Amino acid sequence: MSKVKAKAAADRGRQELLWLLKEAQQRDGCLSDELIARLAASLGLSIGEVYGVATFYSFFSTRPLGRNVIRICKSLPCFLKDCQVIVGSLKGELGIGPGETTADGRFSFELGNCIGACDRAPAMMVNHDVYGDLTSGKISQILGRYD
Ligand code: FES
Hints:
The protein is about 50% helix and about 15% strand. The protein has helices at about 5-30, 35-45, 45-55, 75-80, 85-95, 135-145, and strands at about 70-75, 100, 105-110, 125, 130. Helix 2 crosses helix 3 (about 45-55).
């Protein structure tokens, strides 16, 4: 394949990559090394490039996650509204820290960037649900909504 054709193929692959990663994340729950290698080969991209995209976005994960994924915002507005206190409450409730999954697979707990609820900082998401104006007292009640 000529360099021009290879570049055109890689450009097309880059356009499809995010969609394919999103589809795989929803289907498989995470993006495995095998999947990343397979996508790279089929799209004409390097494994490093696909891995870089898969690990750049916080809504993708390269490791299996729990049934419910908590993403607490650590960006500046939430930081200034003491999101660290909420992180501490989650650690206490779940017995795990950021980047970990409970032994029963019920929750994974991630730190992330802005989720678009800055006006209600500190904020977090559980799966696709957004919770704002968090206090330590609300955490237990929120977690109780998820099996
Ligand atoms: S900074 Fe936390 S939701 Fe935007």
